[in-house]
Amino acid sequence: MSFLNNQIKKNKVFIIAEAGSTHNRSLSTAKKLIDVAASSGANAVKFQSFFSEEISIKKNINFYKQFELPEKFYKKILRHCKKKKIIFLTTPFGFKSFNMIKDMVPLYKIASPEINYYELIDEVIKKNKPIIFSTGCSDEKEIVQLVNHLKKNKFKKFALLHCGTSYPLAPENVNLSYITRLKKMFKNIPIGYSDHTIGISASIGAVSLGAKIIEKHFTISKKDKNPDSFFSLEPNELKEMIKNIREIEKSLGYPNKVLNKSIISKRRAGMRSYYAKKNHKKGSKLKDNMFIALRPYEKNSLPINKIKDFYGKKLEKKINISQVLTLKHFK
């Protein structure tokens, strides 16, 4: 999945700052959102693309109309993203919106309610660009059906996001452990988390469990009266979340035990070697209470967990008080 795979190979999380509809149909606000996402360190900023008539029955069109991102904004938004060196993404909700944005983005995002909308998905995969699917409205059977449908169409460039479609999602309903199950079920598919909780702890926990993509709503101000804003992060919170995620990345490491230079130096200072309590002649037999285990550890000293294996053996050379007992004393 191109840059997304490159992020994952570098043990980096791909972070999507979800602007959603918090632009409030204002180009200047949309640009401010892009500025915030870029300065916070997000990899991408994402909007939502739809025309009311492709998303709802007639009587509800006016409700959705107030959240549309005006078509005339797109080229200006794209240019501003390039200027700020952040990836522009958007979620299409129908054929008209997809045809409008299909050449503007390097990958597509399919929202949770649309992942069984195979007619649209089949059109999207024809472009052969990576697709990220949220799964907030789906049970496990439906997730498996989606994956099988994509495989049937020989489409492999996709990722799945665990998600809960509730705004906001209560902590007791987050179920981050399902990320672990998705990783086991779909071993070669990137798994991430789309976060609708209040705060940043769920996203940080998801990364700790191995999420490779994080999507989080943000806004300029929770007071801007947009229906998404009250559960979204404000700029300082978004920056703090990304800072924490980048620290977690470094902390996760790899599934093998590594003693780095700083640990090795502390190991020497904190671990012990056996030191002679008094002078001992060559030929003395090692027995209890001749040596005492003290800090620091000295390289090539007799391992302190092995000393009883040497009880009764003769010293091959003398050792003076406070000298370290080594294997060479028995050769």
What does it look like?
- The protein folds into 2 domains: 3-252, TIM Barrel; 265-330, Type Iii Antifreeze Protein Isoform Hplc 12 (Alpha-Beta Complex), CATH 3.90.1210.10.
- The protein is built from 11 helices and 10 strands.
- The chain has helices at 3-9, 27-40, 61-65, 74-84, 95-101, 118-125, 140-152, 177-185, 201-208, 235-252, 261-270; strands at residues 14-20, 44-49, 87-92, 108-110, 131-134, 158-163, 191-195, 213-217, 273-276, 291-294.
- The strands form 2 sheets. An 8-stranded parallel β-sheet has the order 3-2-1-8-7-6-5-4. A two-stranded antiparallel ribbon has the order 9-10.
- α2 (27-40) links the parallel β1 and β2.
Using only C-alpha atoms, the radius of gyration works out to 29 Å
The shape, in one word, is: elongated
Number of domains: 2
Structural class comes to alpha/beta
Average predicted local confidence, pLDDT: 94
Oligomer: single chain
For the record, the CATH architecture of the largest domain stands as Alpha-Beta Barrel
CATH topology-level name of the largest domain:
TIM Barrel
What's the CATH class of the largest domain, please? Answer: Alpha Beta
Tell me roughly what share of residues is in helical segments. 25-40%
Q: If strands are numbered along the chain, what order do they take across the biggest sheet?
A: 3-2-1-8-7-6-5-4
